[in-house]
Amino acid sequence: MQFTTSFIAFCVAAVVSGSALPAKRANAVTDVQVLNFALTLEHLENTFYAQGLAKHSAADFQNAKLPSWVRGRFEQIMKHESTHVSFLETALGERNYVQPCKYNFGDNSVKDFVDFSGMVETVGTSAYTGAAQLIDDKDYLTAAASILATEARQTAWVNSAVRGGAPWSTSFETPLGVNQIYTIASSVITSCPSGNAKLLPPLTAFPALTLPANTMPGKNVKLAYKPAKGAKTDGEKYVAFISGLTTVFVPLPKSGRVTIPKELYGVVFAMVTNNGTVADDSTTLAGPAYLNFGFGSDGKAEAFAI
Ligand SMILES: *[C@@H]1O[C@H](CO)[C@@H](O)[C@H](O)[C@H]1NC(C)=O
């Protein structure tokens, strides 16, 4: 039976790389907190597209050598995001809900805008994938799945039709936890209304992890991060590369240099951990950082067109 064979193959691969299926939920996050967390991300996306499209004109898109239909599609994505905002606000109804934060997206060119769009859609998809286990109400779960699929289509469109890369990464989307998502989102959030925090699950942003712009599978690169105050920095450290449902651990020597595993491709999230088999909130020292390794239809590494 094919399913059994491939499932066993997956389990073996997961054990080899020290990964497992996502851990079962072990917290008491409420649906209202999860919806407010989703609304936090939708506000970020909605503001990004509204500000970005106001800033980058049709002529700018043309100068960036993009076909004229690209900007119109981005306008459609912007409408999806604003619809997601009002949909979640309606779902929260009479309850208090989070307001937009202030952001610095740093998109000074159409290329930056396209890059950030690809990232934010992928991270949004990972957020909904990871948050599924936190939702109790089946109607909310269906609504979240419906948004998830749209975000995934948007990711696929940006990465393939616009950037000339692959629409997908591996056989599985990467589920990320709320603190992992919040860590990535924090890199563009400058301040939030003071009333937001009490409506959200308790959140921690881990220290930012940065890798050089030319990071590629097989390359030896130097990582940079500032450990959190009071973090235990002695002892073994590892870089956990999370891709789909698989995590690959590489020891991180004192030099801070690691060779990126050759087998990685597509979107990969990198974290520094103090454990060589477990990459979760309790073992994280920095990250996740978002990495996107382009690959052609032959599976070989390839640069993006934009
Ligand atoms: C990693 O975590 C596992 C599970 O908690 C534990 O058994 C193991 O000893 C830890 N390894 C290290 C190097 O801390």
From TrEMBL:
<keyword id="KW-0732">Signal</keyword>
<protein>
    <recommendedName>
        <fullName>Ferritin-like domain-containing protein</fullName>
    </recommendedName>
</protein>
<feature type="signal peptide">
    <location>
        <begin position="1"/>
        <end position="18"/>
    </location>
</feature>
<dbReference type="Pfam" id="PF13668">
    <property type="entry name" value="Ferritin_2"/>
</dbReference>
<dbReference type="InterPro" id="IPR009078">
    <property type="entry name" value="Ferritin-like_SF"/>
</dbReference>
<dbReference type="InterPro" id="IPR039254">
    <property type="entry name" value="Rds1"/>
</dbReference>
